[in-house]
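Page 47, continued from p. 46.
Same chain as before, 287 aa.
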Amino acid sequence: MGNLCFGCVDQASIGVVEKWGRFHRLAEPGFQFYNPFAGEWLAGVLSTRINSLDVKIETKTKDNVFVQMHCTIQYRVIKQNADDAFYELQNPQEQIQSYVFDVVRAHVPRMTLDELFEQKGDVAQAVLEELEKVMGAYGYNIEHILMVDIVPDPAVRKAMNEINAAQRMQLASVYKGEADKILQVKKAEADAEAKYLGGVGVARQRQAITDGLRENILDFSHKVEGTSAKEVMDLIMITQYFDTIKDLGNSSKNTTVFIPHGPGHVRDIGDQIRNGLMEASSAQVNL
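Result:
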């Protein structure tokens, strides 16, 4: 374009016009006229759009863990200082990358790995402040700095995942133990309540049997003269005894049962049943 008398500068761009080999002026976007007879020509064009530079930095934390940090720097040329950006730096991306390396490797070794994950925004802010101070003198403005990712060594990531899994398993074991404890307590309470209610039922059953026997004895004594309560009781016990043997014989689910049999044994069984009923009646009175 140096041999032409006119030209166009694209939108979002800024042109640098020289005169006799020296910087003369900045050319805004649009149609531009150059006087070649006066030594003017368009030396170059700079884009004023935001550029993005991805930087990967490998460094070590305070607790001796090697990490790789992925950083994205967004920068652009300052229109008013486009001549500085055009003449001062041969390769601005390499310059920005060098400063990023220097700042990150100065800050990260002061932090542990956990602190780095928590305070990565502080590292980005430190890089931004340093780059703004340095690159501003060269006609570049730093728009944003993003710490995209922090990647520890694979062995360290595996160990961190195992620690996290172990902590979660420990917490799950605590909750499971508490649940089992509650279940056992509730089961014991239910068993105790069932036994208590069963005991109350047995006591009431025996009381009902005792009341029924007493009424039967009194009724039989009044109707049959000359009989004592003991004789009536023995008769009832013997009757119940033979009814029990009859039920055992009629049931198809029972196997052979050997029961002592004889007048003396019948008397002993009657005494045992009578004593048991009397003890149950005494227990009910105490309750």
